[in-house]
Amino acid sequence: xxxxxxxxxxxxxxxxxxxxxxxxxxxxxxxxxxxxxxxxxxxxxxxxxxxxxxxxxxxxxxxxxxxxxxxxxxxxxxxxxxxxxxxxxxxxxxxxxxxxxxxxxxxxxxxxxxxxxxxxxxxxxxxxxxxxxxxxxxxxxxxxxxxxxxxxxxxxxxxxxxxxxxxxxxxxxxxxxxxxxxxxxxxxxxxxxxxxxxxxxxxxxxxxxxxxxxxxxxxxxxxxxxxxx
Length: 229
Hints:
The protein is an alpha+beta fold and 229 residues long. The chain has one domain (3-224): Lipoprotein localisation LolA/LolB/LppX (outer membrane lipoprotein receptor (LolB), chain A, Clam). It is 17% helix and 45% strand. The chain has a 12-stranded mixed sheet with strand order 7-8-9-10-11-1-2-3-4-5-6-12. It is globular, with a radius of gyration of 20 Å.
């Protein structure tokens, strides 16, 4: 199955009970291969402040602010990789345990996986039928990774490697459910090309994620300050 074969909208709901005041957040992802546009919504239909657009083909991220009529452009070319001096992410082999349980979620056959992370047990129900989405998202998000070995999520990498798309993820601390992430709707349909472009007339701001360049600039600034002294 090629990446371009899936085109449509994925709606997700995340319920978080880690704080004293439980929160519910809704996400709407428009996906076309490795093009992704995501919006946040809150209970009552209230839209979030902005949205982001990933262009895997152009290796660029746009963070759109509708209230300010502007967008921040972040180039993802040759950034946040080992060659920029960042530590390689340590991948945890066999991060997922297959339980043998199966079921249907939103019309897709799923099987259950279990992972352990930071003293918590994570139950993942995933389907291979949407594995192309996982690969596309991973390629897009992977360009931005700046995680160290300590905060790398081995089970997420393992899902991507197996081309499994998570339909439901439940994080438990002992017998307490801390967070539930679940897909509430999948709608295969054509997405307008404008969905993956910044709105016309919005002001553009740029941000350079070249780590080596930023480090050089900081070093030059530091040397300049010491010379003045």
